[in-house]
Amino acid sequence: MPRQETQRKHKINDEIQAPELRVVDAKGGALGVLPRREALRLALEAEMDLVEIAPQAKPPVCKIIDYGKFSYEQQKREKVQKKAQSHQLLKEIRLKAGTDVHDFDFKTRHARGFLEEGHKVKATVFFRGREIMHQDLGHVILNRFVEQCADISKIDQPIRSEGRTLSVTLAPEAKKPVKKEKSADGTPSEGTAPSPETKQPSA
What we know:
Layout: H1 2-7, E1 20-24, E2 30-35, H2 36-45, E3 49-54, E4 61-65, H3 67-87, E5 90-96, H4 101-116, E6 120-126, H5 135-148, E7 153-162, E8 165-172, E9 181-182, E10 188-189
């Protein structure tokens, strides 16, 4: 139906008009640059669709796939992304130029909790009165804050001045798993390879 065609994000089969196409098969293997007629023939023989996935390329890139399944998987990924974005909030942590160690640690723990929940965190240092003349203290505090959260976050907006405040915004970043290797006796070790002495001599 015409209405369905206008909603489709990709050209498929006879809708593709470029005379030559760079074709990829269903398993991701490159078939090279083929005439449009040949690409359509291969898709028909495979009982699949020829889908234009990179129209801006020269020549356009097309893939031989089941378009119904391809479209479903793409919609599912988009829903997951939208859900993640809608649940992400911007949390604010307020600090002072003279924040003591106990208060700093307490608020940093809160910030880490927000980041682990998938939220962004904006840390703001407020200057009162003549404190504004010592913005270097604010930079020290915010740099320390960034360091304390570095293992689970990345800088979304760098330190910047806003009136009588300095702020930095962090975005959550997944922790990198520690790669464990097996020792000579088969038990996991924390990334340490077995020493040469533990290897059995070859026959």
